[in-house]
Design a protein that fits this description.
12 helices
């Protein structure tokens, strides 16, 4: 039986490979000029090392990767990209439950870091920034909304769907893990334990994409994982709970329809 993801339309794996190559080239060029600018200008080095500078760099990079994915998808309009990318489907019960599992993975990673089982992340955290200042809000929104959205659209939205057209689930998931490891090398290189946590998370995302076909499910999991990883534990839980009415709404509607369609036994 075909999965939901397999029924969402066809993209060519060849275009996906070209997209991966373009992403690697663009990222290499960006990093080269960033390091060149940091060595040439102490002021630029200080700006890049700041939370605000890091957020700007990541936002520009993510927007570029999003454009590359749209280009290689060969769609005539953005609306043609939405359905095969899984953006026409809402959050499902399966995705909502997976979000709790993503929080559990984030908890294990944070706990391991506190116990010295893995090195700390190299990124700045909101906890180290004056709360509610402009830099705090910009960094948090970038890490929690902009970066997950762009990454999910490119990786699970386009690349996964395109590779899945030719390869089976196991091969496609392995390819995605390799791509993610390259994009998150600063995190996966901390330790084997950190790689295990992130690889588990990426496998979870692929399972959710395969099972539900909804990219919003993957995005919800990604958002709450990043929130928890940034020590915003209560907001992570609140976000998941807030989606419960939207998840249950179709179930309640189907239940209500079943009751209304049932024959009146008193008649």
């Amino acid at each position: 039986m075909d999965s939901v993801a397999e029924k969402q339309g066809a993209w060519k794996s060849r275009d996906a490979w070209f997209c991966v190559l373009a992403v690697i080239v663009f990222q290499s060029v960006i990093l080269f000029w960033l390091h060149f600018g940091a060595r040439s200008s102490p002021a630029f080095d200080h700006w890049w090392a700041s939370s605000f500078g890091t957020g700007v760099v990541y936002s520009v990079q993510d927007a570029l990767f999003l454009f590359v994915a749209l280009w290689f998808s060969r769609v005539e309009a953005v609306r043609d990209f939405l359905k095969p990318a899984g953006l026409r489907r809402g959050v499902s019960v399966f995705g909502w439950c997976a979000a709790w599992l993503a929080i559990a993975i984030a908890f294990i990673d944070v706990y391991a870091t506190s116990r010295g089982l893995t090195g700390p992340a190299s990124r700045y955290h909101p906890a180290g920034i004056a709360t509610f200042r402009v830099a705090w809000w910009y960094f948090t929104l970038s890490a929690v909304i902009v970066a997950p959205f762009c990454e999910e659209v490119v990786v699970r939205g386009f690349l996964y769907r395109a590779f899945r057209e030719r390869y089976n689930f196991l091969v496609t998931t392995t390819i995605i893990i390799c791509i993610e490891a390259y994009l998150h090398w600063g995190s996966v290189s901390r330790s084997l334990f950190a790689f295990g946590c992130l690889a588990s998370l990426w496998v979870l995302f692929c399972i959710v994409r395969e099972r539900t076909g909804s990219l919003w499910d993957c995005l919800l999991c990604h958002v709450v994982y990043n929130l928890f990883g940034l020590f915003l534990w209560i907001p992570a839980v609140v976000v998941v709970i807030m989606f419960l009415p939207f998840v249950m709404r179709p179930i309640w509607a189907r239940r209500r329809g079943t009751i209304l369609e049932a024959p009146n036994r008193d008649a």
